[in-house]
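Hey, quick one: can you model this chain's 3D structure?
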Amino acid sequence: MVKIKLDIVGLSYSQTQSGAYALVLGEAGGKRSLPIIIGGYEAQAIAIELEKMTPTRPLTHDLFKTFAQSFQIGVEEVIIYNLVEGVFFAKIVCSKDGKFSEIDARTSDAIALAVRFKCPIFTYENILASAGILLDENNELTADAPEQENTIVEQKSGMATMNLDQLEEHLTQAIENEDYELASKIRDEINKRSES
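Sure thing. Here's the predicted structure for all 196 residues.
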């Protein structure tokens, strides 16, 4: 089967499931995306790496990366290979001394490792055909798409009135308190202002 490369398009709080997040993977060079519902811890683990934050202590996925590198084990790719009753199945393809092994993993954990090892994420056409949704030119859900998670643009109260120094100070505090969700939002606000 031909593998289709996926890129991380977004990560947002789930509107339909309390405490859950929607991870959206987009077809590289295409208009389809794959929304996957994941837990808060896994969302945090992915967001920390995407935002280039450094936690005060290593998270489980960071520990796995250090462990693998210590024994010269590489992570080559992640493949989302099956979908059963709304649950995605993934495998991590690892290498050591020219030998390859496949390890079964929860999709959220596999993606958290993929971002740490900077390895590609793939799926197959049958997965995209059954669970994928179409995006328009602006990477937004099309009107006829099935009810899926929409990206939530959240603004913490008072953030809009802070200057850059105050935002940087709040960012440092959020990281020290290990509130990576808030830190991510503050970082987005800082980046948005820097681009202006």
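One thing worth noting: The helical segments are 40-50, 60-70, 107-117, 125-131, 164-176, 180-195.
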